[in-house]
Amino acid sequence: MTDLIQVYQEALLGLVGNIKRRPLDHLVGFLFPLVTFFIVNYIFSLNYMANDNLVVGVARFIVYVVLLSFYLGILSLILEGNSISIPSFKSSGLRILNDVWTVYFVFSLFDLFAGNLLSGGLLTIALFLAFNPFIEMIYVDKKPAGHLLGDLASFYKTNILHWLLPLLIYLLILVALAPSSIMAYVLIGANPMDFVFGPARLFSQFIMEEPLVLLLSQVFHYFYLLYRGQVYKIIAHSNPRKRAYMREYNDGLSR
């Protein structure tokens, strides 16, 4: 329990310090999904794009994955404390594009063939919780797609409570923020990578009916996303015993 509290405190301090250093970058990180989904929804609502055919479907998929990759690139820059510029935005997004594409495609295929089995069931929630760390493994650690499953087992072996507790609290708060909507339910999709964009994915559904709910939920989601990135950085390559030793060592140096 002591390690749990200390990890969360350290992550919170890291997040606050990060916000203080580069507030404008955080504004970019918050606005990116809202603005891009507004533009994409508008384009695909035009008459010549509204037809539900294979070409439009493939185009949607490609655009979505590219946006997902570049948004993760933005989050990576912010988490590392680097400035967001056009060159850094481009390089960080392209660096993980292949892995984002691979993982998203595999989950999409699985959803396509097992959609009836997953729809509204406990299996969907189980998959969402189980594969949720894939997001940080890709954009924080830059792990290749082929290594994710093996590394996931190792990650959960010692850190499952540290990881899932904030996620469950996040979902409960989201339900409290939007009690009249299905927002929290929709975010638990068959493709865990969809979680990155948060409520912004539901832009067209909520912007006219509940704009304040959408914005408040997206603010909360954005800071939760960064907070869990900080938590991941702390716990991904250590265990409670190793962290306790390092704290004692650092305390000894400071005396």
Automatic annotation (TrEMBL):
Positions of transmembrane segments: 27-49, 61-84, 120-139, 160-186, 206-227
Entry keywords, A to Z: Membrane, Transmembrane, Transmembrane helix
Name this protein carries in UniProt: Uncharacterized protein
Natural source organism: Urinicoccus massiliensis
